[in-house]
Amino acid sequence: MFALLFNLITKMITNITTIIYIFSVSNESINNGTLQKGTAISRIDDDEGFQIYKYSNFLTSPPYDSNSDENDNYEITPLKEENIYLISGKFTPTQDNSINVTITTNVHIPLDKENIPIMKPTVNLLGKTTGYAQLSETGYTLPIQVKPYLSKDQYIPFMVNLTHLPNGRFKNALTMAKKNSTIHTTGVFFLAESQLYCEILEFQFVSGKIDTDNTISVPWKSKADSYTESPKSSLEKRIALVRQNLTTQESLSTSSSTQNPKNKHKTSTTKILDISKSLLSQDQHIEINDSDQEKAENEEETIDNNEDNIGNESDDFKNDKGKKGTLTKVLPVRGRGKRKKLVNK
Questions:
Q1: Would the pTM of this model clear 0.70, i.e. be above it?
Q2: pLDDT tens profile 114-149
Q3: Is residue 19 part of a domain?
Q4: Domain region containing 95
Q5: Is 47 helix (H, G, I), strand (E, B) or coil?
C-alpha cells in the first residue's frame, strides 16, 4: 500500500479522454510489436477551435493487415488515417501548446470527418497544491503541480490551474486546501494564454493514512451453518496452509519474545531453595535416628538388669521350695523397662 501511494505521488496521474481525427500515421517495429506515431486534432467548440495532439500507440500484436481476421484480437485498435477515434491515455503538454499523448485505449467511431463531434478533453489529475485558492470575479483558482510519467524522456512536471464557480459545491474544499496538499481532480481541460486550466467536475483530498478498521459484515456469513461446506480447491488449500504457517510462526515468535531473564533467575532460585529444604530434611531425619538409637540402648540396659533380678529371684525360689503359698515371678517385657508379675497357685 505504501509503495503504491509512493508511486502515485512521485509519478502521479495525468489521464486524458477525447475524440480525435487522425491526420498522419507512421509504423515502426519495436520490441516484438508495432509503435504507431502521428498527428491528430480534436474539435473543441462550434467555431474553428481545435487542439493538436502528437500521439504514440503501441501494438503488442503483429502489424495491422486489413485482410486479416486477427485484427479483432488487438487490445488496442491500430490507427488509420482520416478516421475518428475515442481515445484515452497519459499526456503531457509541449511548448508549442500541443499535447503529447500515449494512447492506452481507443475505439473507432464510424463517422465522416465532416461530422466529427465536439468534445473538450476530460482529464484526471493527481498532484500537489503549490499555493492557496484565490477567489476572483470568475471564481476560485487553485494551482497544482503534476508530474506524469510517459517515458524516461517525458517525465517533466507542469502546472495546472484548477477553476471553480464562486458558489460551486467544492468551494469549501478549495478554501480548506493548504500548500502541498495532495489532491485528485477530474475536469474539463483547456488552454488560455498558453496556460493550462481545468474546470473542476470532481475534487477530493488524498490522504497517506491507511484505515485498518474493518467493520464490514458479509451477508452470507449468517447462513454459514445452513449448508454443507463444499470441498476446497487446491488453490484454497494452498492459501489455508500458508495462513496456518504464518499464524504458527507468529505465535512462536510471540512466546519467545515474552520470556524474561528475571523468570529464569527466579526458577534457578526456586531450585536452590528446594535443594536446601531437602538437605535440612535429611539432617532432621539423622537426628531422629540418633535419638531412637540412644533410646534402644537404654532399653537393652534395662533388660539386662531385669535378667539379673530374675536370676536372684530364682535362687530364692529354690530355697523356699516345698513351702505352700503364692509364687510371684517377675518376667521381663522386652522393649520396656517394666516387670510383669506371674502368679502361681
A1: no
A2: 999 999 999 999 999 999 999 999 899 999 999 887
A3: yes
A4: 2-64+72-205
A5: coil
